[in-house]
Specification:
The complex is a heterodimer. Chain A has helices at about 20-30, 45-50, 50-75, 85-110, 165, 185-195, 215-225, 315-330, 360-365, 380-385, and strands at about 10-15, 35-40, 115, 120-125, 125-130, 135-145, 145-150, 175-180, 200, 230, 235-245, 245-250, 255-260, 260-265, 270, 305, 345, 355, 370-375. By secondary structure, chain A is of the alpha/beta class. Chain A has 2 domains: about 10-150 and about 270-330, FAD/NAD(P)-binding domain (3-Layer(bba) Sandwich); about 155-265, FAD/NAD(P)-binding domain, CATH 3.50.50.60. In chain A, β12 (about 245-250) and β13 (about 255-260) form a beta hairpin. Chain A starts with 9 loop residues before the first strand and ends with a helix. Chain B is α+β, with helices and mostly antiparallel strands. Chain B has one domain (about 1-55): Enolase-like, domain 1, CATH 3.30.390.30. In chain B, a hairpin with a 5-residue loop joins β1 (about 1-5) and β2. Chain B starts with a strand and ends in a 30-residue tail after the last helix. Classes of the chains: A alpha/beta, B alpha+beta. The interface of A and B includes residues 358, 363, 368, 372 and 381 of A.
């Protein structure tokens, strides 16, 4: 890889072994680069360890309560069903362990050297592996450290949980208040409500699922309401205080509510703190994200970043696509931008949302003329189940 | 289920689905939309009956915003 071959330990060093980092490392290695990767938590990243995958497994679990009821309309008599949260969590964890092992084996098989350690930049080419008391020199660096739940500055913030902890609760609570109304908040609301928990959504905006098409937002709010989820919009949380059997939540309008658990899902912050990015001269954006160009290059020529840490479109397949185009750009001498247009995405609520492209509101701003086609229908499945 | 169409080019620029299997449906629709499929292309596609996704190719009537209803001259 050029004349510097001998003065660097690696052609590429990747910080963060999530979806983007692992893909970048493996593809670079397959193109002949000497690659190292560091991970301080678990290989697999948010998607596999505490995001998409465990979340969807819990969503599946939450559907059975409705399905068991629906079955009656189809002639089934089901004796009283019971549910064990510890069994679900143990089975989910076993599957996550399996995927984690799969990622570890794939990394090894591709010839990437893994360091299970936090990695910090000392200068633009030097990475310190904190847990291992070791420094390495890299010709190129890929930052793929992801993001972490943002906890708002409220009184009693130390009492709240985030999606990270919600995936590992020892017991299912009787009630939970979820602060926020983005896809993470609503998916966990669906999970908990389906498992019989009394759920309240607290959101400061006028309607849930900001940024999505207005018709979808309104219809989903109505559907979630039918499933027993209490949605409080235009409501701003100011405090959380321990109270017998749970917590008292104080709202800005002076009202209060009691709940057994409080979860916040009010956005995610890029993991850029304490990584030595300043020492390397890397520019950060308003949200602390790594600023990159269309080719995922940072303000430093040989340092790139992909995935949630860049706060572009924070989705696993996007991080993977960014990692692939990064490899093509750097190791195949073929500068390739990432195409962030027309990305399909879903919200795994009950019912589910699938969306791609412009909302009606966006289209009315972008296009001179807009035609809208709408269809509302009752899913055939519910003609006999009797569910609305 | 909702399709957003650019009135000038007839291209489908947005597709939004709320209901069972919405994610599965949108992933497939994404291919057509990214390729620049028009509403006419959707309409010319034969429906698969009975399924929920067939609604995507059988939406014939343009929706009129309430404030415009009644002023329509055509």
């Amino acid at each position: 890889m050029g004349p510097d071959m001998t003065s660097y330990d690696y052609d590429l060093f990747v910080i963060g072994a999530g979806s983007g980092g692992v893909r970048g490392a493996r593809v670079a290695a397959s193109m002949g680069a000497r690659v190292g990767i560091a991970e301080e938590f678990r290989v697999g990243g948010t998607c596999v360890i505490r995001g998409c995958v465990p979340k969807k497994l819990l969503v599946y679990a939450s559907k059975f309560s409705g399905l068991i009821e629906d079955a009656q309309g189809y002639g089934w008599t089901i004796p009283e069903a019971s549910f064990s949260w510890p069994t679900l969590i143990a089975n989910k964890d076993r599957e996550i362990d399996r995927l984690n092992g799969f990622y570890l084996r794939n990394l090894k098989a591709s010839g990437v050297e893994l360091f299970e350690s936090r990695a910090v930049l000392e200068d633009p080419h030097t990475v310190r592996l904190e847990g291992l008391d070791k420094t390495i020199r890299a010709k190129n660096i890929l930052i793929a450290t992801g993001a972490t739940p943002y906890i708002p500055e409220i009184e009693g913030a130390e009492h709240v949980i985030t999606s990270n902890e919600a995936l590992h609760l020892a017991q299912l609570p009787a009630s939970i208040a979820i602060v926020g109304a983005g896809y993470i908040a609503l998916e966990f609301a669906t999970i908990f409500a389906g498992l019989g928990v009394d759920v309240t959504i607290i959101y400061r905006g006028p309607q849930i699922l900001r940024g999505f098409d207005q018709d979808i937002r309104d219809a989903l709010a109505s559907e979630l309401g039918k499933r027993g989820i209490n949605i409080r919009v235009n409501a701003e949380i100011v405090s959380v205080a321990p109270q017998e059997g749970g917590y008292a939540i104080g709202l800005k309008d002076g009202s209060a509510l009691h709940t057994q658990k409080v979860m916040v899902a009010t956005g995610r912050s890029p993991n850029t703190t304490g990584l030595g990015l300043g020492a390397a001269g890397i520019d950060l954006g308003w949200n602390g994200h790594v600023v990159v160009d269309d080719f995922s290059r940072t303000s430093v020529e040989h340092i790139f970043a992909v995935g949630d840490v860049t706060d572009r479109v924070n989705l696993t397949p996007v991080a993977i696509a960014e990692a692939m185009t990064f490899c093509e750009t750097l190791f195949n001498d073929n500068p390739t931008p990432v195409d962030h247009q027309f990305i399909a995405t879903a919200v795994f609520t009950e019912p589910e949302v699938g969306t791609i492209g412009m909302s009606e509101e966006e289209a009315r701003e972008m296009c001179a003329s807009v035609d809208i086609y709408k269809s509302r229908f009752r899913p055939m499945f519910h003609t006999l189940s009797g569910r609305d | 289920m909702k399709l957003v169409v650019d009135g000038d080019s007839d291209k489908v620029v947005g597709c939004h689905i709320l209901g069972p299997d919405a994610a599965e449906m949108v992933q497939i629709a994404a291919i057509a939309i990214r390729m620049g499929a028009t509403k006419a292309d959707f309409d010319a596609t034969m429906a698969l009956h009975p399924c929920a996704a067939e609604e995507l190719v059988t939406m014939r009537e343009k929706w009129t915003p309430p404030e415009q209803a009644g002023q329509s001259t055509s």
